[in-house]
């Protein structure tokens, strides 16, 4: 996003031992501290940060296990995410290919369970190595214990500490991808949903799709001076979704209510308790239909909605963190006023609030 002030202290950790020592030292002090990966999903205030920023710059990809068609990789938290994806595609392994082009570090990938074009980290994640700030223990947490969901995990829900390494289980289909599960990607590849193509073709198509939306960094394109999608797609009750216009995109996030046939004369049995039915909405559709067009900016502001994608807020040159936050609040308010839906920011906000 190219905004933000300087921290009082910056520690760059290039080994796991340095990372553990830096976090332990910072957590023992009275000043605030913050763990920074690639920075792509962080928007900071321009005011100085009166504390310690620990920059995760560890590197390394290690093959730790394999069987007939499964390949296990242990990856250092600071390894650039897209470098990892490119490496797995070069090897012909599937599982991460549709996550090409996402900026940031590998250690950040399970924090919000990154996903795109029909894949998400939860599908291949095995475990993370984690220094727990509350207990001070260095632990391995299996993926099943991370409460992974749409752009969330236990780390987004309050568990504090630092991920030092991530283990993935990928598949060797002889260079073939996982089944294509996203309509836009299937169209770009000119295949049916469920088809398998080469992992290299999936990566190439995903990078082209992302670039067309301004989601691949290009110094000559101000639309790419962003943190990617600024808002998550909201998840609401089915009842709330029914109040939206009929053409509003929506996707059920759980099973449909069970249909039961009860013979005449018999009392229907009480249904088993069920979680409330929920529906995922399109944040981009809500923003556009609340009257905010691509390229919109507030008068005098140097922050603007991307000219390519209404989910991205961009720095048109010289914007401040406050200008970005002001635009985000305006988008929130317009959508809430028009549809009664509150959009939630996807990036981590440091010294800013909406």
Strand content: 25-35%
Distance between the termini: 16 Å
Q: Tell me the radius of gyration.
A: 22 Å
- CATH architecture descriptor name of the domain at 61-212: 2-Layer Sandwich
Give the biggest beta sheet. 6 strands, antiparallel
In CATH, the topology of the domain at 61-212 is named Uridine Diphospho-n-acetylenolpyruvylglucosamine Reductase, domain 3
Structural commentary:
With 354 residues, the protein is of the alpha+beta class. It has helices at 16-28, 81-91, 183-189, 199-212, 238-241, 283-289, 321-339, and strands spanning 7-13, 33-36, 42-44, 49-56, 61-66, 70-76, 93-94, 115-116, 119-120, 125-132, 138-142, 161-172, 226-229, 235-237, 250-252, 278-281, 303-305, 312-315, 348-350. The chain is globular and about 70 Å long. Among the domains are: 7-56, Uridine Diphospho-n-acetylenolpyruvylglucosamine Reductase, domain 2, CATH 3.30.43; 61-212, 2-Layer Sandwich (Uridine Diphospho-n-acetylenolpyruvylglucosamine Reductase, domain 3). The protein is built from seven helices and 19 strands.
